[in-house]
Amino acid sequence: MEKKFVDWDYYTSSTVEGRLLIVWRKSFVRVIVIEENAQHTQCYIKMDGQNNACCITFVYGYNTNEERKQLWSNLLKLKFLVKLWLIAGDFNALFDLEDREGDIAVTLSDIQDASLWLAQRHLELLLTGSNFTWANNQEGHKRIYSKIDHIFANEDWNDSFPNTKAHYSWETISDHNACVVSVKVSEKIRVKPFRYFNFWAYHPEFKNVVMKSWNKPLRCTGMKTLYFKLVRLKHCFKRFNNHVIGDVGKEYEAAKDMLIAAKMNSQADPRNLVLQQQEKEAVDKYCMIENMYHSFLSQRSKVTWLNKGDDNNVYFHACLKKRRVENRIVFYTNDQGESIDHFPKVVDHFVAHFKGYMGTQSMPSKSINYDSMALGTRINLDQQLSLLKPFSSKEVKEALFSIPDSKSPGPDGYGAGFFKQMWLELG
């Protein structure tokens, strides 16, 4: 191998001959094998000229669920020399009920062990290319496709390299896909649009902020008044969030530490009324900030069915990062089949696409063809009058309150939660 690949080095697992082969270019990267097992090899990897090192675990899982139980157990016990970590390879395991096409349907028992391991806050990279990674290459109804090759990252990796993606493609006659992992330093994203957060309403100053801005007069009428009041309120909310609310995650941790300290002080001097009052105030503050933090995580992660608690907060964060990965658009394929991943070009492409689709100026609407209208079914006079009736406040309220608070906001950044919270004052 050294004769054919000059300046390259390799490692093959000595535990089970031929199961894993790792190849790297010596002049660019340093690889140290830390641990090996029949189903995985753990490596420390350092790129020349780069400050950050990482751990990568290469996997080749056994074929049966029973044999793979040892794989999941070993992966849970792994210790890392550095924070950044990837795990990649042929797991021979399914993680989702949709991971196989053909043959018998995937059952919950097929994915149980893999899903339990995945629940330990591991996130699959953003995937592009083929949906399946393996095929049995048989003909007709015997053809089976499945997704058994995977690449996962820990939270530190996703925090440091959020634009990482894995591209699967059928490169050769092999029954497995080839996979290329691309790592890019995050591009600086332009100014983020305003978004209303439901947890703001838990703060005692919330309504004062809204009404102080809302009650200022405007020289316009009708819907223009509503529009400009909402625009003006955005700036007030931004100042409120930056100068009063702050980092709700840090505030939550600080409130929890303060509560623990107050309880310990009160316990040390059980008859001290001052300490008891301080404990009560710490409890009240903690409960308020806990509700705010839970609301924030729930809204951002779109998970609304979990109760409050530190364990669930960890799950919220994992779901939030998963949504960020899934919703991120890091490249597009142009008309010439080229993959473009330069962020400013991706942005310009989307702007140009929607300009071409929607136009850049309003076009005169066509006049109604009354002859064509007469050919269709027409409503009677009573139905016409019913449609012309104005909506009642009750109907508007019922429609508004039927919208979940977690529903994504409109273009102005305000979700249903704001209008529901302020209904009595503004409705």
Automatic annotation (TrEMBL):
Native species: Cannabis sativa
Name of the protein in its database record: Endonuclease/exonuclease/phosphatase domain-containing protein
Lineage start: Eukaryota, Viridiplantae, Streptophyta, Embryophyta, Tracheophyta
